[in-house]
Amino acid sequence: MQRNTLGQTGIEVSPLCIGTSPIANLAHYGYTVSDEQAIATIEAVFDSEVNFLDTSNGYGEDGLAEHRVGAAVRRRGGLPEGFVLQTKVDPDPATGDYSGDRVRRSVEESLERLGVDHLPILALHDPEFMRQDGFAPGGALEALIEIRESGVADHLAVAAGDLRVTQEYLDTGEFDVVLNHNRYTLLNREAEELFTRARAAGLGVLNAAPYGGGMLAKGPAAQPKYCYGERDEAIGNAAFAMSEACERAGVPLIAAALQFSVRSPLVDATVVGVSRPERVQDTIDLLAVDIPESLWEELEALVPKVAI
User: Fold this and answer.
1) 25 lies in some domain
2) In whole angstroms, what is the distance from residue 54 CA to residue 19 CA?
3) How many folded domains does the chain comprise?
4) How many Cβ atoms sit within 10 Å of the Cβ of residue 275?
5) How far is CA 101 from CA 115, 185, 200, 217, in A?
6) Which of 35, 81, 145, 233 has the fewest Cβ atoms surrounding its Cβ within 10 A?
7) How far is the C-alpha of 213 from the C-alpha of 58, rounded, in Å?
8) Rounded-to-integer distance, Cα 83 and Cα 148, Å
9) 74 in a domain, yes or no?
10) What are the C-alpha distances in Å from 221 to residues 62, 75, 113, 188?
11) Segments forming the whole domain that contains residue 150
């Protein structure tokens, strides 16, 4: 599998990044994953061509996803050579505290769970939901800069959905990577301007949730929600039309959804969550599906002009 340079960080990453929220037993997924299945899934990533894993302090009760990633790391005696592990800082799950002190504690917790003492990328997660001013003295931004300057993290990222808040943090010049979810897919292009500006500034760009929360993986008939909420009628109609276009072309909708992101010159890596070991290779195999240019043109003509 090819490697892309993540912006100007010098970090070489696979075009696929495996996300770990599906192994965190989060309620909105509607299923649970055993410890052994979760650890086996992470080990399958380590054994694959993918060299990039995304997790977060707040994925699951008491950081369940990080605990499971750490268990796999320890089972293997460390990360594979050249492997890139990134995590995110999150507010206190009990109080909502997202102060600078909380950010420091979040990193300490993550390092202990993951079994590492250094992170190539550390992300500020969902700052749009902060109760405190992240830009204020003693706030989250100040703490992140201190963590980077201490050598614990090499590069800082913003990982969020809200485009305006994300851009406000990027405008500080302190972040080298941006991650956005659900807003650059076959069905939605809201993040295109954000990604274009980030690319022009030399930032690394990560596009997460290319399936829109599952609709473009399971199909609009099986998954009525987009981005974890009830879908707009225009989104639903477009999804059905795209599904039918893919069926006529003999192309799985899920393959088109993934390749839309991976083939984009705006995106360095696409983050896809998996919950079972076999899904790692299944996802890699989707990149080999041949998709004719005529189908891309047809799908582009079906993009709805709505926001989520």
Assistant:
1) yes
2) 5
3) 1
4) 18
5) 21, 36, 33, 39
6) 81
7) 18
8) 19
9) yes
10) 35, 40, 39, 18
11) 4-213+254-291
Residue 11 within a domain? yes
**For 67-121, what is the HEC assignment?**
HHHHHHHHHCCCCCCCCEEEEEECCCCCCCCCCHHHHHHHHHHHHHHHCCCCEEE
Length of the chain: 308
308 residues of the chain, pLDDT tens digit each: 999 999 999 999 999 999 999 999 999 899 999 999 999 999 999 999 999 999 999 999 999 999 999 999 999 999 999 999 999 999 999 999 999 999 999 999 999 999 999 999 999 999 999 999 999 999 999 999 999 999 999 999 999 999 999 999 999 999 999 999 999 999 999 999 999 999 999 999 999 999 999 999 999 999 988 987 878 899 999 999 999 999 999 999 999 999 999 999 999 999 999 999 999 999 999 999 999 999 999 999 999 988 77
What's the CATH number where 187 sits? 3.20.20.100
Structure tokens of 57?
Answer: 């302090």
Q: What would the two tokens of residue 71 be?
A: 């268990």
- Single-letter amino acid, residue 36: E
Q: What is the pTM of this model?
A: 0.97
| Cα gap 306→308, rounded to integer Å | 7
Residue 49 lies in a domain: yes
